[in-house]
Amino acid sequence: VVGDVVQVFIGLIVHREMHLVVGIKFNGRVFNVLAHEEEVKGDTRIVMRFHPRMAPIKAAILPLVKRDGMPEIARTITEDLRKHFRIEYDEGGAVGRRYRRMDEVGTPFCITVDSETLENDTVTVRDRDSMEQHRVPIAELRTHLDKSIDAWEAV
User: Residue 59: beta bridge partners?
Assistant: First the structure.
């Protein structure tokens, strides 16, 4: 885009933990990104904490299993949301490992299609930073993501 200025800087903060700091300055506004490791239930989790507006991938769509029509529903959701956001579709491996892959690249939201989706057309939306999960009707996903991006605050 002509007239826009983007500057990237990288630093390292060492204080009990190592944190990689990536800063992005866009049109005079600075966005800081922290990538760090944290312990969660005995496992190490690496998280790139992009502000959702700056995250290269806004959400990942994850069918819980590769049967029972879940992949088809997940692909439909993917195609619908791709009109508005950069979306990743992933059906490979255990859902926990898929969450971790998305955490590492800074994807703020994971949307899981599961057996409850088949019953009531809702999905589980997982927040990268808090790891909280909420049921959201499929028809309200775009609005939910827009509101979540606008309301985001660093943890």
Answer: 87, 109
Q: Dihedral (C-alpha) 47, 108, 83, 98: value to the nearest 10 degrees?
A: 60
Amino acid at 123: V
Structural tokens at position 27: 């049109």
Question: Can you tell me which residue has the tokens 């949307």?
Answer: 111
Return the structure tokens found at 53: 């507006």
The burial class, CB within 10 Å (0-12 / 13-18 / 19+), for 142 is middle
- The pTM (predicted TM-score) of the whole model is 0.78
Instruction: Single out the residue of 24, 78, 77 nearest to residue 53, CA to CA.
Output: 24
Q: Is the pLDDT of residue 46 over 90?
A: no
Whether residue 10 is predicted with pLDDT greater than 60 in this model: the reply is: no
